[in-house]
Amino acid sequence: MAARSQRPVNVGRLFHWAAERGRPTVMHLDRPFDIAPDSGTRFDVPALAATVEDAAGWLHGAGLRHGDRLAIVKENHYDFILLAAAAARLGALPVMIAPIRSEAHIRALLTRISPKVLVMGTTVLARMTAAQIALDDPGMTLVAVGEDRPGLPGGTLRIDDVRGGARPPVRFRGRHEPMLVTHTSGTTGVPKLVVHSPATTLAAVPFRIESYRLPLMTSRPEDVVASGISFAHNRNLSWTNGTLFRGPRKMVILSDPGLENVARMLAAHPPTSLEACPNVFQYWEELADTRPELFAGVRRFISTFDAVHPRTVRKFLGASRVRLPLWAWGVGQSEIAGIAAGVATRSMVRPGKPRAHDATNVGFPPLVRVKVVDPETGRKRPRGKPGLLMVRTKSRCLTYLGEDDRHRAKDQGRWWNTGDLGEYAGYGRIRLIDREVDMIPGMSSIELESTLLDRLDRASEVIVLGVPGQLPIPVLCMRDDALDPQEWDRACRGLPEMDKPRLVPWDEMPRTATWKVRRGELREQLLGSSDTYGTGQWT
Predict the structure, then answer these.
(1) Class of the 11-17+41-195 domain?
(2) pTM greater than 0.85 (yes/no)
(3) Would you tell me the crossing angle of helices 278-290 and 259-268 to the nearest 10 degrees?
(4) CA–CA separation, 212 and 363 (whole Å)
(5) CATH fold for domain 445-527
(6) How high is the pLDDT of residue 357?
(7) pLDDT at 2 over 70
(8) Name one GO biological process term (predicted).
(9) CB atoms within 10 A of CB 242
């Protein structure tokens, strides 16, 4: 009995452990898994464990062995973590790569990985083929998953080609050995590959916090928890761990954030908990305006990966019909988990609240130590004085795969340089200001963008770019791709002087896999310049 109840720290044990506990949770998908296209869209926990077992078998059949590396590059879906669990059961190292925009960046990442087996989605594979980027690395087996497409490269295998062998042995790696690799968002270039062990993930408290019983925050047996994140990132691991431990009635997977798909799934499975990336919630504001009943039963909204704007929080909390809905937000990095976190209620995001005290921008370090230092001297900054955020935590990654020197440059003894700017806000809280590379002297682009979003109700995205020698340049996505000059003048009243706004359609805004705007690429796209005020030294 003790062995059954012991909390797993290796992702390869997670689904089998949950199946042994007999949790009644059922997962509902918005489309079939890419690795199990004929298995439908409804999975109980034993079926998830069986899918992991099956994947371990065909990965072994493709030649993956203990100590090898598996690269996973495919369309966004929850089965990223199933493949990672399967590889971990073999003692291999899974590297999860979201379907990022740049085929050249994908090729660069694969070169760093040198995988024994590459599992690639057919849509991504078609993009690579169209870009004439070869995937014929010596000694590498390529397995395509997803819908059939013509013109796959010669030598490409499908799952059925490598299935049917003997059941492979289970050989987990050690507690402090590499277990899983995810990548950073890549807002400033080729993403970094972040290496984690069991000790820095499932054994660390920040990854387990959601499995504890917390008033108003923890999933209950009757809950329906829905998630629409980038499933290739570490957040999927911590969310899965906490959700399987608490055992809600349903897990709802939103692999496609499109409005029609999300409306269909939320109508079929009304959630009590809903998570997405901040910019995805921003995109879904249109649903909050036109279909508020979809969010009527949500008592807990969750946003991670990036800062969230008050208008977004206000709209969704207003759409909920429960007595006290909460918005839980967290800002972190793939390398270290959380930096700051907070909870907002309706009253905390009421219109007119001063930005310096905003509930979506000022939070507490979540079980980690944070200090604010001068970027040049390294000395601690007093309250109210901006500086670099340094974090000390047991969930810090081991290294960057293929870039050890880059990792060492940010590793300062027991402290990790986040490259984010913030300040002490009193009572142990941290106020987020900007990424250092995106800074605008004398202001916070986070706060300026939040103010403009509040004043431009039809805006679905606002980005303010700082360019040396010029006024800050606002870039707007408007729902109807139009902006009245008088509307803009009213929005700018009382704000720092800015250049004329640029309009960019939502679909043309360069984004990462977590829907963050790639500000460097946007700057190049609009201005033909890469100049910034920040150094970018810690990106």
Answers:
(1) alpha beta
(2) yes
(3) 70
(4) 20
(5) GMP Synthetase; Chain A, domain 3 (3.30.300)
(6) 58
(7) no
(8) fatty acid metabolic process
(9) 18
